[in-house]
Amino acid sequence: MKKILIVNGPNLNFLGIREKAVYGTVNYNGLLEMIREKAQELGVEAEAFQSNHEGAIIDRLQEAYFDEDLIGVVINPGALTHYSYALHDALKSVFVTKVEIHISDIDTREEFRRHSVTAPACDHQIKGHGLDGYLEAMEYVVAQQKNAEEEN
Fold first, then answer.
1. Mind telling me the catalytic residues?
2. 3-151: CATH homologous superfamily?
3. pLDDT tens-digit map of 81-90
């Protein structure tokens, strides 16, 4: 079965706990349930991975390189978005559709959040759509896969 890897960076395991006005009240398990339901609807497998450690995220992305069923990566790098060139490089080495997502609109937040060093390593970016951004990103990945299959 085709697979989408959902990667969540630092502090995303604290959804529903931290800054509810920014990130909402749905907790991390609620997000995972939304992702599971969407994957079922799209006919794909969704594997979620979350870490507060940059190296663990990079290791997981490097493992993804070898996954023949993988059609895409949806990543919310959290604060790593703004400074992790190592994460940028890891994303560049995974040759599937990659979508960076942000729950809030990073362009309207603090100045340091307005620049993403990881977005150029991705095919698409979704920001400010709340948790629905994950679902939109999954739809984007599946649509890109279908387009690629039709071209072949």
1. 23, 102
2. Dehydroquinase, class II (3.40.50.9100)
3. 999 999 999 9
